[in-house]
Design brief:
Number of strands: 5
Number of domains: 1
CATH superfamily: YlxR-like
Number of helices: 3
Order of helices and strands: EEEEEHHH
Distance between the termini: 36 Å
Shape: globular
Radius of gyration: 14 Å
């Protein structure tokens, strides 16, 4: 019997609203304590939202308050700045390693 092709989970980027494979996106999570961080493992507990590895998508998601809506929590300036810095460092690592 031939092996079934593995189903690729798809998620929507909250910035550009495009459906993409889950592995290409970054998960932003609001922990049960209320802290908003980037979840590099994809397994942290809490409410999650997905973003492209694109600074423009993050900017749009913050500006249009899409991230706040998805995470069901207000996003502080410090959290937004931290997300931008983390996204920048992830992109730098990908550029060097890829």
């Amino acid at each position: 019997m031939p092996a079934k092709p593995k189903k690729i989970p798809m998620r929507m980027c909250v910035g550009c609203r495009e459906m993409k494979p889950k592995g290409e996106l970054i998960r932003v999570v609001r922990s049960p304590e209320g802290a908003v961080t980037i979840d590099s493992t994809g397994k942290k507990p809490g409410r999650g939202a997905y973003l492209c590895r694109n600074a423009a998508c993050l900017g749009r998601a913050i500006k249009q308050k899409q991230l706040e809506r998805q995470l069901e929590a207000p996003l502080s300036e410090e959290a937004a700045l931290s997300l931008r810095e983390t996204l920048d460092s992830l992109n730098r690592e990908a550029a060097q390693g890829g």
